Amino acid sequence: MARIDLDHIRHAYxxxxxxxxxxxxxxxxxxxEDGGAYALLGxxxxxxxxxxxxxxxxxxxxxGRLLFDGRDVSHTSTQQRNIAQxxxxxxxxxxxxxxxxxxxxxxxxxxxxxxxxxxxxDTLAMIDLADWAKRRxxxxxxxxxxxxxxxxxxxxxxxxxxxxxxxxxxxxPHMKWVLRSQLxxxxxxxxxxxxxxxxxxxxALTFAETVVVMYDGEIVxxxxxAELFERPKHTFVGYFIGSPGMNxxxxxxxxxxxxxxxxxxxxxxAPKSTTGTLELGIxxxxxxxxxxxxxxxxxxxxxxxxxxxxxxxxxxxxVVAIVGEDEEVPAEPKMRFEPRGINLxxxxxxxxxxx
Length: 355
Ligand code: ADP
Ligand code: MG
Description:
One of its GO terms (cellular component) is ATP-binding cassette (ABC) transporter complex, substrate-binding subunit-containing. Pfam families: ABC_tran, OB_MalK. There is one protein chain. By secondary structure, the chain is α+β, with helices and mostly antiparallel strands. It folds into two domains: 232 residues, P-loop containing nucleotide triphosphate hydrolases (Rossmann fold), CATH 3.40.50; 106 residues, CATH 2.40.50.140. 25% of the residues lie in helices and 34% in strands. The protein has a six-stranded mixed sheet, sandwiched between helices. The protein has a six-stranded antiparallel sheet with strand order 13-12-11-14-21-22. It has a four-stranded antiparallel sheet with strand order 2-1-4-5, with helices on one face. Strand 7, helix 6 and strand 8 form a beta-alpha-beta unit. Helix 3 packs across helix 4 and helix 3 runs parallel beside helix 5. 39% of the residues are buried. Adenosine-5'-diphosphate binds next to helix 1.
């Protein structure tokens, strides 16, 4: 396995890119450490597939360098990069047996037949497909075929990295869960360098130790699930992670306090010198509804099992709160923000407070 270094990577699909808008990847600098398990999380169209294809060599970046263990591989072929890639939809040979589908990438690289046999059998057992070895792929369902695709990615233990591009999209929800935990176990056992692309936060947060969040052609934050949740560096991260996402409210800052309409919110640790309009980010989990605080009117209550999602209007803005199942919401509720849950943003990027 290898350490993968993306050095000032930019990519434009069209000719003659002029503005940053013309780039699918605008400026990516990141190191995937050898043996790390990463999730690459972001909305559709943010550049995840483009980035994976640049790593595997299906695509050559318009600018920047790609290094494997410090060696520049920017201009090498897919074959030379030696990366296993599992795509969103199954890529298998319909006329071959399940066994031969897995054996193919190994035989292709001249692996001795005894080793091919051992690896294929091990991998089939790992993904619970041992009984299917002799079946032809043609008659299988989409999610069975996708398991074979996963198998084809996992069978090659000599690769520099394994890249997964939303591989569980066609898999049914229960199987998704099973396969994800199997991938995690494989990572622990073999120390693969794994990059797992998804637009699903639950999938990212359960798979990876490190989540790399992409937005609009850039990496906006890298962190553990807890870091992303508690200290979103960009309002997009706050909004995208958590369900419902973070509230973002425009506030006027003056003398270490935030003013939202007629309301004043204390900001422990906020720089006293900061003034002007900023964005205050607060998660629904840190919004309290009770008898003291700022007057609000409630517009909607959704009971979603262990808690309720309450939408309220504060100074003409919608604020979402999460309220425990047993918590009483008074008839004329007031709202408070837990100080530890407050983040401040200028042009969508978090500004460090002193608290
Ligand atoms: P994601 O995988 O995160 O959904 P992609 O990497 O597929 O995003 O796409 C990033 C951006 O590049 C999108 O705006 C998409 O429309 C554009 N794009 C992707 N593939 C091509 C292509 N072959 N030609 C032109 N534009 C493309
Ligand atoms: Mg994609």
